[in-house]
Amino acid sequence: MNEKSSIADPNLAPEGLRKIEWVSTRMPVLNRLFDRFNVKGTFRGATVAVSVHLEAKTAYLCLILKKLGADVWATGSNPFSTKDDVAAGLAAQGVKVFARHGVSEQTHREELCALLASRPQVVLDDGADICLALHDHPDLGTRVKGISEETTTGRLRLKDLDAKGKLLYAAVTVNDAKSKHLFDNRYGTGQSTWTAITHLTNMTVAGKTVVVLGYGWVGRGVAHIAQGLGAHVVVTEVDPWKALEADMDGYAVMPIAAAATCGEIFITATGLEGILKLEHMKAMPDGALIGNAGHSDREIEVEELRRVATRAREVRENVFEYTLQNGRKICLLADGRIVNIAGGLGHPVEIMDMSFSLQLASLHWLLESPAMKPGVHNVPEQIDELVAREKLAADGISID
Ligand code: NAI
Fold first, then answer.
1. Ligand 1 near 52 CB (within 6 A)
2. Burial status of residue 202 (CB atoms within 10 A of its CB: 0-12, 13-18, 19 or more)
3. Atom of ligand 1 nearest to the CA of 153
4. What is the pLDDT of residues 177-228, one digit of tens each?
5. Is 152 in the pocket of ligand 1 (CB under 6 A)?
6. For atom 1 of ligand 1, which residue has the closest CA?
7. Average pLDDT of 349-362?
8. Distances from the Cα of 142 to the Cα of 97, 122, 124, angstroms
């Protein structure tokens, strides 16, 4: 296959490569796995399709795959998190890239289909978009040995397909590995969400009342860092155990209807749709900030907000202020898209080093395994442990 890349501007490549170089020396676990897998040669000649938030860290993973001898085809998992300079850098290194920042959903679907033309043998997915596209075009999936899925939302989609008996492929859910969700979802999203929000707004977090909707791994991280920054943290939940855990972790717990009236910054973290509703926004104090850390762009009812607003204006880059009929203003961060990525730099490098090491090792395992039955599989325990031990070793930490 000699398909040409489709990117915004090849002239951006030097800046993209500079960003990739920065992360390359800060991902020691991935570099150690490269040495290990390079000896084995399993990736040589394999076709790998990748759909992830396309920025420097994911680009480095693509380059590692390329250096291991794979034919790598990449797109973004959300057009608003795609960094055009990084996409250009990656294309300059011989990866086939179909990704441009900010394109429509329709164009993004076309980019996914362009990727499928590679007839991949293994797939690295984030949100199960490639997997679903493969189900629409099963003729392009006949060589697929397996899919490695990154995130909680993708895992839910795969499990749903599997439960209906419709999943056509073996899929590994990297999110379920301890080396992923204990660190990436919690510490990674926690830190990068607040880095993004403080950068987008130039405001303090200390002293503010922060409402975190959902106390799963992501919610725990967002709440933990907010507390560390000096916020008063309120948690909303539907799961009684998670609600109790939030209470015992020292946060106020209440229903969203009550939290809406007292919060100043609201962060959704459930991964579901329609969680922060218009009725809640109408109850919020003037100037409330709202943002989303979950995978879905529809966790906040953005369309409803736009529909009723009497005025809308971009008050800072990536911050929209909507005036409601009651005269109060609501500031929406990064259009309600995944704020730490669409409005920031994404997870810190060291966190993604672990997540992507799991991805690399899972793809390696899928390629080496005899044909696996369709269904959802956990990352094998030995891979999870390998990543944790390599991380300890890279950080110079010994344990008993
Ligand atoms: P999780 O399943 O551990 O947590 C979700 C929580 O939301 C659960 O505790 C659930 O009880 C709660 N919840 C459900 N409905 C609710 C409602 N109506 N009100 C309040 N709480 C409710 O999932 P996890 O791992 O925390 O992931 C959440 C989302 O974040 C997913 O979409 C995931 O894909 C995404 N994610 C985002 C990252 C980022 O970089 N921003 C990184 C990792 C995951």
1. no
2. exposed
3. 34
4. 999 999 999 999 999 999 999 999 999 999 999 999 999 999 999 999 999 9
5. yes
6. 216
7. 97
8. 22, 11, 16
3-state secondary structure 277-342: CHHHHHHCCCCEEEEECCCCCCCECHHHHHHHCCEEEEEECCEEEEECCCCCEEEEEHHHCEHHHH
What tokens were used for 187? Answer: 């510490």
Q: pTM for the whole thing?
A: 0.90
- Please state the atom number of ligand 1 nearest to the C-alpha of residue 175: 25
CA distance 61 to 356: 7
185 Cβ inside 6 Å of ligand 1: yes
Closest CA to 89 of 109, 44, 59: 59
Pocket test for ligand 1, best of 182, 186, 295, 300 (most atoms within 8 A of CB): 295
Structure confidence at residue 145 as a pLDDT band (50, 70, 90): very high
- Backbone phi, then psi, for 121, in 5-degree steps? -95, -35
Cα–ligand 1 centroid distance for 268 (angstroms): 8
Q: Which two tokens stand for residue 76?
A: 């973004």
- 56 within 8 A of 354, measured Cβ to Cβ: no
SS3 53: coil
- Asked whether residue 2 carries a pLDDT value surpassing 70, the answer given is no
Token pair belonging to 181? 């969700």
**Domains of the chain (ranges, CATH numbers):** 10-176+348-394 (3.40.50.1480), 187-337 (3.40.50.720)
